[in-house]
Design goal:
By secondary structure, this protein is of the alpha/beta class. The protein binds adenosine-5'-diphosphate and zinc ion. Adenosine-5'-diphosphate binds at residues 15, 18-19, 22, 39, 41-47, 294, 296, 322-323, 544.
Length: 596
């Protein structure tokens, strides 16, 4: 049976084999046994029920919490020749009725519904004539109050199952692995003798980096420039910051969109679509963005601020590289971020116990930003995996080749300048004094009389900026939270000033290009965009970046060649095969013409 499934995998999806856990999941369902499937985001959960849906008689009912996700999945399935539909609140009564009739005629292999739908009597009546062979509960952690997106209507699923004439095989799928959530899923869904299939949480293709003390805007500007043409998400802690980074990027002529809960519905959905359809490269957003987005070609996720917990971080950062291509997750850390998150917890109306839990989670997040051992190991161990290797070779700690520099002397000069200036000025003024600037404000306030005036005049302003940021990121300086922030000394500064503590710094460099774009890849992206406009579907649903990249390297020139490209199933070959071959051939010909 698994052979047949592998064949279908190739035929429809164009994939050569199952990934870790998928084969076992498929076999479990087909043997009639319930299952709990836990895989990280991008692990490939959907295939676990989509493939069985093709070989089972009857229909597969998929319960999915998000309207956008349902639509994406259904568009994708129809695009590869698998009949599927969704029923949710975006449809009118007659449309729902029509889809139910089609379903009972056996027109769909899969039907996606929202959990609330199961409580509708007319919907349940509509299902009566059908055989539901598989019931897949996607994002199953929504059933648990311990999960991060509790959804009360998930609690109705088990009674819905009992009311069915024949009990389908039940599959629960999630990316949340904590024990409490797992137990809740099994108990509340009343799974019988469930086979728990859990794959590792590592996302090999993601490079994790923490950058401490950089000028955040400057970093972002240089990074998005180096990676223009690639899709990326920039997360900020507050709406205000999202607005200001967005403005900053627009001023610098980058193609960016904005998304946060303070915008109107229309505005938000327009920004989201612009991003999904590759009309803009970058989306600047708060954590309101992302649920239900399965855009597969996000090449980088930059956190402009540290999030509140490792759970939140891994979920948000995990939106990069769902297609398995190399992608980067970068966290720009600054000590001020901790204050912001603490403030959020203080101001929340959580119970004292919950507040203390949140503080603990926050501390783990802060530790991640400061750890000097492998970041991947830190993440995986946080989620309960044991990791043997010390060096993953793909995180900013393991890949760090920069030398640690002793900057104690520089630190002493800066800190004493802050002290001499009576802790009354902001960063720019302190730098002006150190540089010995003749700026009017410096002279008016007689700051040129200070003993630290001009003592760093030979050091470039950019470097001074970096040094001050570094000192505040590491807690040697504190930046007040006022309209005009002022630098203050801290208990740590004293140790440095007295010569009892040494200060070190590593300066991270920006690596060029997450993806090495070549000309053919860009031509293929152009074709994908044309198809996307014509068919009104997001580009990543037409082809994944992986597929385009493989075409660009394999240069297929026949139908048989295309079959060997991952992600090129039969229907896609029929629809777009000749367009792709035309582009490849023209490219090869032009190239030969140039080199001859
Ligand atoms: P999840 O729901 O677990 O986040 P998806 O089901 O959306 O993950 O799959 C993530 C990506 O991996 C999709 O782009 C999918 O097409 C791809 N994928 C899944 N299974 C395979 C496979 N066996 N071979 C190659 N690509 C796969
Ligand atoms: Zn590492």
């Amino acid at each position: 049976m698994l052979d047949k499934c592998t064949m279908l995998l190739k035929k429809y999806y164009g994939y050569d084999g199952f990934r870790e856990g998928q084969g076992t999941a498929v076999e479990t369902v087909l043997s009639g046994r319930d299952s709990l499937i836990i895989m990280p985001t991008g692990g490939g959960k959907s295939l676990c029920y989509q493939i069985p849906a093709l070989v089972q008689d009857g229909i597969t009912l998929v319960i999915s919490p998000l309207i956008a996700l349902m639509k994406d999945q259904v568009d994708f399935l129809n695009g590869i020749g698998i009949n599927a539909a969704f029923i949710n609140s975006t449809l009118t009564g007659p449309e729902i009725e029509e889809r139910l009739i089609m379903a009972s005629r056996g027109e769909y292999r899969l039907l996606y519904v929202s959990p609330e739908r199961l409580e509708s009597a007319s919907f349940c009546m509509g299902l009566e004539g059908m055989t539901i062979s598989i019931l897949a509960v996607d994002e199953a952690h929504c059933i648990s109050q311990w999960g991060h997106d509790f959804r009360p209507s998930y609690r109705q699923i088990s009674s819905f199952i009992t009311r069915l004439k024949k009990r389908p095989v039940v599959m629960a799928l999630t990316a949340t692995a904590t024990e409490q959530v797992r137990e809740d899923i099994v108990n509340l869904l009343e799974l019988t003798d469930a086979n728990t299939i859990m794959t590792g949480f590592d996302r090999h293709n993601l490079k994790f980096s923490v950058i401490n003390g950089a000028d955040k805007r400057d970093f972002i500007k240089r990074y998005v420039k180096e990676n223009s043409g690639s899709s990326g998400i920039i997360y900020t802690a507050t709406r205000k910051e999202a607005e200001s980074i967005y403005k900053f990027l627009k001023e610098n002529r980058f193609k960016a969109g904005l998304y946060h809960a303070g915008l109107g519905d229309d505005e938000r959905s327009a920004s989201q679509d612009d991003f999904l359809y590759d009309n803009v490269d970058i989306i600047v957003a708060t954590n309101a963005f992302g649920m239900g987005i399965d855009k597969s070609n996000v090449r980088y996720v930059i956190h402009h601020n540290m999030p509140k917990s490792m759970e939140a971080y891994y979920q948000e950062a995990g939106r990069a590289g769902r297609d398995g291509e190399y992608s980067e997750c970068i966290l720009l850390f600054n000590a001020g971020d901790v204050q912001t998150q603490k403030y959020f917890i203080d101001e929340s109306n959580l119970s004292p116990e919950r507040k203390s839990m949140e503080y603990q989670k926050l501390q783990k997040m802060v530790d991640y930003c400061h750890t000097s051992s492998c970041l991947r190991k830190y993440i995986l161990e946080y989620f309960g995996e044991t990791v043997q290797e010390k060096n993953c070779g793909n995180c900013s700690v393991c890949c760090d080749v920069s030398e640690r520099q002793d900057i104690t002397l520089e630190a002493q000069k800066i800190l004493s300048c802050v002290y001499r200036a009576a802790e009354r000025y902001g960063k720019n003024m302190i730098i002006d004094i150190l540089k010995g600037s003749k700026n009017k404000k410096v002279l008016d306030n007689e700051l040129n009389m200070l003993s630290t005036y001009g003592i760093m005049s030979s050091i470039e302003r950019d470097v001074l900026n970096l040094l001050v940021n570094k000192l505040s990121a590491d807690g040697y300086l504190r930046v007040t939270e006022e309209t005009f922030p002022v630098l203050k000394l801290t208990s740590r500064s004293l140790g440095v000033l007295k010569g009892n503590e040494k200060v070190f710094m590593k300066i991270e460099k920006i690596k060029k290009n997450v993806s090495v774009d070549d000309d053919l890849f860009n031509l293929l992206k152009g074709l994908r965009k044309e198809i996307s406009i014509r068919e009104k579907l997001p580009p990543y649903i037409i082809f994944h970046d992986t597929t385009l990249r493989e075409i660009a390297s394999k240069l297929p020139c026949s139908r048989d060649d295309l079959k060997k490209v991952k992600g090129f199933g039969e229907k896609k070959i029929d629809l777009y095969g000749s367009l792709v071959i035309d582009i490849v051939q023209k490219f090869v010909k032009d190239k030969n013409a140039i080199s001859n």
